[in-house]
Specification:
about 400 residues; alpha/beta; 7-stranded mixed beta sheet; 6-stranded mixed beta sheet; about 30% helix
């Protein structure tokens, strides 16, 4: 290995000794000349002792750590990390026929990398220049580790690395088939132009929980995207399901997914409208099960205050639209919004709406989106299931 070096200031190695996978720019004393973004570098203490190897990048996070051992980041490294990730998914019950997340960034000791599997197709997304530059090596390792179960690898990083040249396309194989199975239900996955990798796998367990509560209820699924909660509500025996999203494309995909599972079922209607306007137009007590699953209101700490105001306003509208005895599923996927932040915003909304509310469940991301115990920032999905009197 002939990686260039990044030398830390005295004492700044302590977080790395606790295996936190980020090196912040303020911790760096000096670095070798000519380090380019995405390049692999060795991180050294002030005394020259090795402490980590990782991808260099611009910004406040200056290095994303790949290993705390002094190893080469080569084909064997990628295969070992991917095999470890796959073994964990097999251990918790995921198989090649289902939709699941194979790599969850820092949670799988591969910071900056996401891989979601939809049957025989894996969708890879880079959140760092380093992972982008290594995409072909990673794809080759994934094919080897999967032992033929992955037949297609689609790379989708236009939205996560918008300053790069357009990068979407197949790294391996190539297919137009885009239907995946989740808990026995079928969904069209728009990995070409859809959000994230085409589907929000992280709500799989929470969708199944909603199915349990749907029997005989009138269900409103706000920010429906591909209609996941709507399809599960229908299988759960809801008497009607309304799906709302401001995106016409999302509404069309929702309709397709409902038709794929429940052809000709008149219980479902979809509306292309702004979420806040739709809720404001509804009479009090219009629904007895409501899902509020908005996109991230805050993507950085500077937006936190306005985000919390947004969550309070949205949930207050939800409380106003729900019948006594109704159930509200409400979520935040903003990483900078903590569980306490989110709960306080929802509690404020309940008080403003003057509703008596009890917590039935506290929700989070599923097991195939693991949280590295040394990287608590990886816990991003927060949810509450509330009984509203």
């Amino acid at each position: 290995m002939n990686y260039k070096a990044v030398i830390l200031k005295r004492g700044k190695e302590e977080s790395l000794r606790r295996f936190h996978p980020w090196v912040f720019s303020g911790a760096i004393q000096r670095a070798d000349d000519g380090i380019e973004e995405g390049e692999k570098v060795r991180v050294l203490t002030e005394n020259g002792d090795f402490i980590a190897v990782g991808h260099a990048q611009a910004g406040s996070i200056a290095v994303r750590v790949l290993s705390f051992s002094d190893v080469a980041i080569d084909d064997a490294f990628w295969e070992q990390r991917l095999r470890s990730a796959l073994q964990m998914r097999v251990a918790i019950g995921h198989n090649a026929d289902s939709a699941f997340r194979l790599v969850h960034g820092e949670g799988d000791n591969l910071p900056g990398l996401i891989i979601d599997c939809y049957g025989q197709t894996a969708v890879m997304q880079a959140h760092s220049i380093g992972m982008h530059l290594d995409r072909f090596d990673i794809a080759r390792a994934l094919v080897n580790v999967s032992e033929g179960k992955i037949a297609h690898i689609y790379y989708k990083s236009e939205t996560t690395l918008p300053f790069m040249e357009p990068t979407n396309g197949f790294l391996y194989g190539g297919t137009s088939e885009n239907i995946a199975t989740e808990n026995g239900l079928r969904f069209r996955i728009d990995w070409l132009k859809g959000q994230k990798t085409g589907f929000f796998i992280d709500q799989r367990d929470n969708r199944l929980l909603l199915q349990h509560y749907a029997q005989g209820r009138s269900v409103l699924n706000m920010f429906c995207y591909t209609g996941g909660f709507s399809v599960y509500a229908m299988r759960g025996g809801a008497k009607l399901v309304h799906s709302v999203d401001s995106s016409a494309k999302a509404i069309e995909l929702t309709r397709q997914n409902v038709e794929l599972n429940f052809p000709g079922d008149a219980r479902h209607e979809a509306f292309c409208e702004d979420a806040f306007k739709y809720l404001e137009s509804q009479p009090k007590g219009a629904y007895d099960l409501i899902v509020l699953d908005p996109p991230a209101f805050a993507k950085h700490r500077g937006a936190l205050h306005n985000a919390l105001k947004g969550y309070t306003r949205l949930n207050m509208k939800g409380f106003q639209a729900i019948r006594p005895g109704g159930i509200l599923f409400t979520f935040s996927c903003s990483q900078v919004v903590t569980k306490d932040h989110f709960r306080n915003a929802v509690f404020t909304a309940a008080a403003q709406a003057r509703r008596n509310v009890r917590i039935l469940h506290q929700l989070h991301q599923p097991a195939d989106h693991p949280i590295n115990i040394y990287h608590p920032e990886g816990e991003y999905l927060k949810g509450l299931v509330l009984y509203v009197e």
